[in-house]
Amino acid sequence: MAEEIILRFDNVVFEYAEKKPVLDEVSFGIHKGAKITLMGQNGAGKSTIFKLIKGELKPNKGNVFITNNATIATALQVVEKQDLNLTIEEYFANAFLEVPGNIKSQISKVMNAVNLSVPTTRKVGDLSGGQQARILLAFALIQNPDILLLDEPTNNLDKDGIDHLIQFLVMYDKTVVVISHDADFLNCFTEGVVYLDVFTKKIETYVGDYYSVVEEIQNRIDREIKKNAQLEKEIQDNKEKVNFFAHKGGKMRKLASKLKEEVAEMEENKVDVRREDKTIREFNIPAQGIIGNIVTIKSVKVIKNHEPVVKEVDILLRQRDRLLISGPNGIGKSTLLRSLVSNNNEGVTILKDTVVGYYSQDFATLDYDQTVFDSLQSILADGIDIQQMRSVAAGFLITGELMGHKISHLSEGQKGLLSFARLVLMKPGLLVLDEPTNHINFRHIPIIAKAVNSYEGSIILISHMSDFVKEIEFNNELDLGKF
């Protein structure tokens, strides 16, 4: 018996109102119970496909078929701002049109599934980034969907959280479609890839684990490049013959005409080689050059049994000192950084006149109502003019057309790159980085790691991405989990 197709796109064409085409006659099917990765370059339209599946958008042409009215739920990348003031119980109640009588036991069940233990009276906004990531997944699970859509589900999760999520997904018997830049995570459970190409607006489907598919795509690109090179050589040879024979008479002129037709046909047969995302340019973050005891940390608060406990420490950061803050989700890492930057932590002192470059995991430093241009201009250090500002932005793929957009219209990845551009332009004496690889394309991460490692000021970093952390030389570590 053939496997049942639960989701099918049939010649779907979609473009936004501003005539920005995203999908061109896209067709693919996903079997019931399949675990599929949705891949594609930045801006290809992966999130658009999710919206079409959910019915939030309608195709311009073609159809999206959901078999037997299968139910759908999405685990979003970030908690919506209007939900941050809700208690956990209130937040889960929003998953239902009519709140069930046994909601408390349902909440308990899904919180257990995502390995999260916090009182349901806590506000969602008081949770750590990792705890919020678990809540987002639990919110989707409580709807008991036939199709589960996951958008960057490992962002903010520590290693234990990622391991638990993998284990859960391997055992999960429903259909799952995942967007993620975490290759190791994807390779553990996905069995096929749906690839959306930003240039052709077409879909390709592949069967196999993630690494096998990536290798297959690369081999295909290599074959396409080789085929084009051979055709290019033949085209050039024939063009030279056409030029030679065209000036001769009779049969030679006929031969030239025939060769010209062959050249046109070969030009038609050249393959559109897959072009992957552009990678950001290498960059440096200029340091303020401030001298002295830049950061003094005498005590920190850690969260034990959901209550803050003050612990004494003795950490001093001068120029070129780097501090890695580690510990499990919910221990208080991001809270420590926020209190440090806002200067309301009695146990931490930052040297007067230090320019602090803060990368917040929830982009709290960005004003979503500002345009990209105004956001960049508002933090310019002395000596940097508008032309230099535009050049720095372009290096982070923030082009002229994006400059007039409101920050609220940017993708999460673009907000991340904008945040790095701002750090370059402000010339900080202290870098405070909270999960700076979240939402960032994996091609950009080695370039960012190199820039952070070569920075001449002080650094305080939280990151759960071990491949990123190992590229940076630290001389201090504060493990909050050891208290």
Task: Give a nutshell description of this structure.
The chain is of the alpha/beta class and 483 residues long. It has 15 helices and 17 strands. It has 3 domains: 5-213, P-loop containing nucleotide triphosphate hydrolases (Rossmann fold, 3-Layer(aba) Sandwich), CATH 3.40.50.300; 214-269; 295-482, P-loop containing nucleotide triphosphate hydrolases (Rossmann fold, 3-Layer(aba) Sandwich).
Task: Provide a descriptive summary of the structure in words.
The chain is globular. The strands form 4 sheets. It has a 6-stranded mixed beta sheet, with helices on both faces. The chain folds into 3 domains: 209 residues, P-loop containing nucleotide triphosphate hydrolases (Rossmann fold, 3-Layer(aba) Sandwich); 56 residues; 188 residues, P-loop containing nucleotide triphosphate hydrolases (Rossmann fold, 3-Layer(aba) Sandwich). The mean pLDDT is 87. Helices cover 35% and strands 22% of the residues. The protein has 483 residues and is α/β, with parallel strands linked by helices.
